[in-house]
Amino acid sequence: MLLGLNVLTMSQAKPLTDLELIDCAKANAKQGVANAAKLSGYGDDVDQFMDALQSACQRIGVNIDSLSDLITEQQQMRQIPGLEIAPDSESSL
Question: Is the pLDDT of residue 80 over 80?
Fold first, then answer.
């Protein structure tokens, strides 16, 4: 039993703004705009989320047209499967 702990769901929380919104949107951009909007506290209101995100980005001097503009090269790179080569034991090089 949790005493004195107020747990808020995203639907009850205030939507994120400014740098917190940008950080959350960037971290979740690969999962799509609907998911990023929900995780940022905007629920299903994708238009309001995108308006707030574009405004936040403009305030820091960054212009975006879509959420995908926040995905970095590192996030886009996929790990290429490879073959690991190692000795049979620590003493056998």
Answer: no
